[in-house]
Write a structure and sequence with these properties.
single chain; about 260 residues; alpha/beta; Rossmann fold; seven-stranded mixed β-sheet; 9 helices; about 30% helix; binds S-adenosylmethionine
Amino acid sequence: MTDSAVNRQFWNAYASQWVERGRKAWQSGQPYWGIWSIPQSQIAFLDTDLRGLRAVELGCGTGYVSRWMEQLGAEVVSLDLSDAQLATAAELKREYGSGIRLIHGNAERLPLHDASFDYAISEYGAAIWCDPYLWLKEASRVLRPGGRLRFWGHSPWAMVCLDDEGELVTRSLGRDYFGLHRLDFSDAPIDPGGIEFNLPISDWFQLFQDLGFIVERFLEIKAPDTARGESFGSDAKWAQRFPAEHAWWLRKRPP
Ligand SMILES: C[S@@+](CC[C@H](N)C(=O)[O-])C[C@H]1O[C@@H](n2cnc3c(N)ncnc32)[C@H](O)[C@@H]1O
C-alpha cells in the first residue's frame, strides 16, 4: 500500500472520534490552534482579512479552518483524502449554511489548476500527513506568485523525542534528528497510527528556498503556562520547555 493509502484507511477508521472536536471548532467564532488550542488573539496564525481571496485548505478534516477562512471573507476550497472526514465536514457545512467547497483529493497530487489560489493553509493536515517534498511542491504550484501559505504541525523536536509506539513525547532523544523525514506509526503496538512526515529545520528552509517560498515568520510554539496534563501525545510540562509544535508563514516569491 502507498503511504497515502495507509493514511486514508487510518483516517476513515478514526474519523468518528473527530466529530465532536470538529463541531466545537465550527461553533467557535474565534479560531484557535494546535495541541493547546492557542487562541488566534495570541498567535495570529490566520491573516485577519481574507476578503476577495481564493483559499485552499490542504487536509481539511472536519473543515473548521475552512469555515473560519470563509468567515474572514475568503472563497474556500477544502480538500481531504478521507471520505469519512469529508462526510463530517459536509454535515457541519449543511448545519451552518456554509459555502465552502469540499473536494476529495490527495494534497501530494492536487486536482487543482496552476496559480489558481491566493492563500493556502494546513493545520495538522498535509502539514504532517504528507511528504513535504510532494505537498509543498504542489502548494507552490497552485499558489499564484505572491500567494501565501501557512502551516502548523509537530516540531521535529517532538518527533525525535517521541517514543517508539508513537504515544508520548519523552525526554530522550530516541530518534535521529539528521535524516528525519518519514515516520511510520502504522505498526505501533499500543496505538497504531499512520505515516507522518517531518524534517530537520535546516531541511525545511532549504526546501522552501528550492520551491521559491520566502519565510515571512517561523514560530516554535511554547505551550501556554496554563496548560496541564497530556494532549495528543505531548506533555504540557515538556511543551513548556521544548517546542512540541511549529508554525510557518510563507509567501511564494513574486515575479
Ligand atoms: C488532524 S486532521 C487535520 C484537520 C484539522 N485541522 C484538525 O486538526 O482536525 C488530518 C487530516 O489530514 C487528512 N490527510 C491525510 N493525508 C492526506 C493527504 N495525502 N491529502 C489530503 N488530506 C490528507 C486526513 O484525512 C485528516 O482528515
